[in-house]
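A further point concerns the way the authors explain their paired sequence and structure data. Nothing conveys this as quickly as seeing an actual entry. An entry of this sort, consisting of the sequence and the corresponding backbone structure tokens, reads as follows:
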Amino acid sequence: MVYPLLGLKQKAVVLLSGGLDSATALADARSQGFECYAISYDYGQRHRVELELAKEQAALQDVVKHITVQVDLRQIGGSALTADIDVPKDRNEDEMSHDIPITYVPARNTVFLSYALAWAEVLEANHIYIGVNALDYSGYPDCRPEFIAAFETMANLATKVGVEGAKMVIHTPLIDLTKAQIIELGLSKGVRYDMTSSCYDPAPNGKPCRHCDSCLLREKGFAMLGMTDPLVGKFYG
């Protein structure tokens, strides 16, 4: 569905991490006719290369404005992405889905969506896009449809725009897609996946480790389409 309003584009706030999924979600929002505002987070993550790639994606996809919010989740810790804890490597898919992994950042999407909601109110935007996925994912509780539905309900109870009747909508266009389907969708919309990063433990130059859960799921997605991840060719020749 496309959402033009009397010939004018409606605004959408898009969570943009610099990863494969969020770049695809942004492309989908643009294809639906939204005027897009991208928000990224510098939260103390070890994979900080994604922040530079978020800037690149924002420019490539012609967002109206891109901001990076600083929220230091290293002060809380509890995750291999924000504390001195080893990132799990070389796990099979059964191991990935068995328990919530140590790469889960406590309440991250709740925090991120809250900032996005605040900015949406200021922008008078009624739409928020987030690239969460409930199929090819690592068991994160804040990627589930139940969480998104609950947050949307809360958003419409806690905000001026919700109280005044213009409801806030949380869009999750990737939530029921496999990684291969996400990639296929993005390619159809011209996403540059060589300008994204998914690795939880990359080298300083962005070279993916190819062993963490996120790398393995990403490479599998490309392989299912008969393709090689462009980052593999970029860094591994």
The chain has a mean pLDDT of 92. The chain has one domain: 11-236. The first strand starts at residue 11 and ends at 15. DSSP finds nine helices and five strands in the chain.
